[in-house]
Amino acid sequence: MDAEIVSFLTNQGLAIGIATFLVWWVTTQMGAQIKATCEGQARLCEQQIKLATAMDRMVERLEAHDARAKDILEKVVTIEKKID
């Protein structure tokens, strides 16, 4: 009877140990995957911010060119009116 109790407790302890290891291992693996995913998302966000900034600068330059073109066109129209 004592041997059966010791065997039962040993098996229970082994089962608990294995379950604890599996929980730790799965948690560690999930943590590593989540960390890698977050780092990837952070890099993606940084690239999107750079792209958005570059596009914003491009729009500003296009607006400046548009303003200059309108000014030049007004001068051309004024000169044409003087010639006529």
Q: Give the helix/strand class.
A: mainly alpha
Please state roughly what percent of the residues sit in beta strands, choosing from under 5%, 5-15%, 15-25%, 25-35%, 35-45% or over 45%. under 5%
What share of the residues lie within helices? over 70%
- Order of helical and strand elements: H
* Head-to-tail CA distance between termini: 122 Å
**Could you name the ranges where pLDDT drops below 50 across 5 or more consecutive residues?**
none
Total count of strands: 0
Largest sheet properties: none
- Helix tally equals 1
What is the typical, i.e. mean, pLDDT? 91
Shape field:
rod-shaped
Radius of gyration: 36 Å
Summarize the model shown.
The protein has one helix and no strands.
What does this structure look like?
This protein has one helix and no strands. The protein is an all-alpha fold and 84 residues long. The radius of gyration is 36 Å and the shape is rod-shaped. It starts with a helix and ends with a helix.
Write the layout of secondary structure elements.
Elements lengths: L1 H82 L1
Descriptive keywords:
single chain, 84 residues, mainly alpha, 1 helix, 98% helix
